[in-house]
Design goal:
The protein is an alpha/beta fold. Helices cover 45% and strands 15% of the residues. The protein contains 16 helices and 15 strands.
Amino acid sequence: MSLLRRATPDEQFAEVTRATVDLQVADELRSKLRRSYEREQPLVIKAGFDPNRPDLHLGHTLLLTRMRRFQDFGHEVVFLIGDFTAMIGDPSGKNITRPALSREEVLANAESYKTQVLKVLDPQRTKIRFNSEWLDALGTEGTVRLAAHWPLARMLERDDFKTRFREGRSISMHELLYPLFQGYDSVALKADVELGSTDQLFNLLVGRTLMREYGLEPQVILTGPILEGLDARMEDGRIVGEKMSKSLDNYVGVAEPPSEMFGKLMSISDDLMWRYAELLSGRPLEAIQADRDRVARGELHPKAVKVAFAREVVARFHGTEAGAAAAEEFERRFSRREVDPERFPEHVVATGAARVPLVRALLDAQLVASTSEARRLIAQGAVKVDGERVSDPKAELAPGTHLVQVGKLRAARITVR
């Protein structure tokens, strides 16, 4: 059976639109899916990524997960690397002009992106394109003609531009061109659907309008939510917290070791687990809701659901065997309370003083990525020294060897001398 006939148009619609924030326009998407199903002709699904940084975390993969759902139904997925637009910098949500990147920086980051995204998308069925293919060729005349399709007044309707204009902040001309270039990507690819995050809605709508201007059937737009970080919590019936971010040390990096990734996912609250499962899991919504109902009835422990989810995510980025091994390691070291000090690496901190700050020791032993992460974890009670929980960020280690544990899976024997 063709992948395009694997599910009915209604079943496909339910899966690809799950956790959608903006859908422009639902009836058009249903029509496109129905036409694709009847003709066995795949839709062109586009999502663009500007390679501004070399590494991705799970928050970045929300779009990739939605792309994979389309892909699993047989549609053509185009992972568009904005090597041209990255040199401008998307001004969405920014109050200042973003610094431009060099072509060399962009291409280096793009290579890292290509490796990481194919851990989510099917390498055999993913088209990777660079928007410099058509934007470099557009030239001065083409850019002027493109700009003629969009009034300045409408460009200044965008929230960030409107705010900056009202407050007298600088808006550079190249920033005004960015939404037009992104929109032209959809024209060049003849996209049926474009995916993005909520802060991209204006740019995506520009693409929809430009396609009409160029005599093409306009793309459907789907935007998704922004993923909350590991420390998000439930308040008044809703999940609240800062978005997942490396700078806030509340992220799960897609290139992190399996045990680290698994342990971080097991640390989230039970409430946040359902949010993550809905946004990131490859399981059908019906299956996730069935588990939630069983938990509510007391027939299933939430930890079992969380283990299965963490194992699925680790397997996605590191393989099935790594997912199983991470689950077993977590069970052995945490659930069974099996802590063997001899198994942990040893690190020596040499200091001229009698004692060494615990924050420095954690950083030197590579148990944390930064001093801010060390302080945060200590304040949260996630650090133990010789089996005793430490909550004072100003704590120090006395001379000697100490077993220091950070969270559930990181530990080392630190010798101070």
